[in-house]
Amino acid sequence: MFNLQSSILNPIRWPQSSWGVLPVLVFFGIWEGVVRLQLVPGDSLLPPFSGVLQEFVHLVLNGVLFEHFFRSFLRVVIGLCAGTAAGLGLGIVMGTQEIFHKALSPVISLLYPIPALGWLPLLMLWIGINELLPIAIIFICSFFPILYNTLTGIRGVNPRLLSVARTLGGDERWIVFRVVLPLALPNIFTGLRLQAGMAWRVIVAAEMVAIPTGIGALMMRAESLVRVDVILVCLLLLSVMCLLFERFFVFVERQLTAGWK
Amino acid sequence: MPAVELDGINNHICRDLSLSIHDGELLVLLGPTGAGKTTLLNVIAGLAAYRGRVLFDGHPVDAVPTRQRQAGYVPQTYCLFPHLTAAENIGFGLRAQGYKKELCEARVQELLALFCIESLADRYPLKGLSGGEQQRIALARALAPWPRVLLLDEPLNSLDLRTAKYLRLELRRLQQQLKITTVYVTHNQQDASEIGDRVALLNKGKLEQVGPYRKLFFSPHNQVVASFFGSHNIFFCRSCIPKASGLAEVELDGLSLVVPYEGRLIESIAISPWNIFLSAVPVPGPQVNRLKGCVLQIEVKSAFAWIVVQCFRERFVVALQKELWDESGLCKGDSAYLVLPLRWIYICAARKDPNEMRKH
User: Fold this and answer.
1) Paired residues of B311 in beta bridges
2) Which end of chain B has the least Cβ crowding within 10 Å, N or C?
3) Nearest CA-CA distance, residue B210 and chain A, Å
4) Least CA distance to A182: which residue of chain B?
5) pLDDT digits (tens, 9 = 90+) for B176-193
6) pLDDT by residue (tens digit) across A28-46?
């Protein structure tokens, strides 16, 4: 007889990671099955998942994937680091100095809604088509959201905490580094987490349009050769990188704030 | 020389406010909501703008920034730093002022022991600390850098009644032990009557009267003070029979009470409505100053209940926090039991005892 009590109160405890992996495996299984059973017209437009895996191995072994991936990775890391440093720095200044906040807020509000890729034509004219272009795009992509989140985090700190810190003898710099920034960390990391994924999305678009190297460029070349399997390898790699970058920041945030949050 | 002196303080709330706070005393700033109590506390701490002069030990501190005023401040909601452990919170001021690490650690340990919170040293404020525990940590943090004056903004407001009562006494004990000049903001008369050396009544940014609680209660300077303290329980004594150990038995209209005796014949006594204990059941213990009566009238105003209890031919007004009143379950016409603590019975009027005069 079906034991209702045991099924509700003592559910089977799947390992936590199984729930993440299982649906993905099912998805790949359905993909493989649908293509093998020829339920979609023509195998060249949708290769089986095993075919994509084979192509992945091939691209890894001949070094093509690594070469393009490494270039994209480097651009993302440099652009993200520069954008984060600038956004964080300006966010701290604007968050703690009222005069800078009043002076710069209208300009930031004006520029923030412009999508990062919207800057591409202008940057192509200003910078030219070189290594700096994708880095500049990533910089813009990460700078504004991190600035905005830093500002929100800093201005969200309870002013009474700052008053108490002052009565305890803290000068303004001490208070910024010992009270304001630690308390703004959750907000800052929200910005970092979102922008880490967004950076990968933007870099591919920039490489597709303007740069002859990187994952985006590899995808464009594959498109002209009608190599759907290569495109799918690149898309899966992008997906994994977005996920890994986001998870990395979740991990760092937990290390820094899980104790007290 | 007063430890803290306020001279002609004016700002958006305070109106020409002058006040002296003696060295080592606990001054209660009492007043209704919006009276300017917290603003005045902020003026002393240097957290609010003002015109006028603030002097610490006779020296003006108007130009001294908040961080150098050495005022230990405990805000209403404690405001513990959530990202720091209890020990780090306590040591925050010491580190901010550049004390050596060893000294910081020793001082933190000393305060953890003083407040009996050693077991909380590594706990974070948001990780299940009770209101009482947070209050102790906030107090320890304020005291850590050896402040010249301790400023407490309604420190017991967010605690349940029992914890508040316990901590009120604990706070007073510590203040007397440390002999630190303390300004205590509250709107609760019970706080003022139980722990204040003196009480300063503020209303609409103006200082109405300063003095011992008893003086404000029984000799209000003006109508504002009188109406703030509300009803009095003043009783005329028909007879006064001196007993041993500085006590006398006085007879009211059908009742007899034991009261403090200082060699003068007592003509009238008084007790604050806040200092009478009310119970729905007989209170155990020696039957001294314990009366049985009948609930005659109940009036609930915001957070407080005012109850009139008839005992023989005398009527007693009792003030209770609404929460306690609801707990008692008493209704109009029910029997109620009163306890009049000896230490809260004031002698309003007394004349020289002719028998005592004859002895001399």
Assistant:
1) B314
2) C
3) 27
4) B83
5) 988 999 999 998 887 888
6) 999 988 888 888 766 558 8
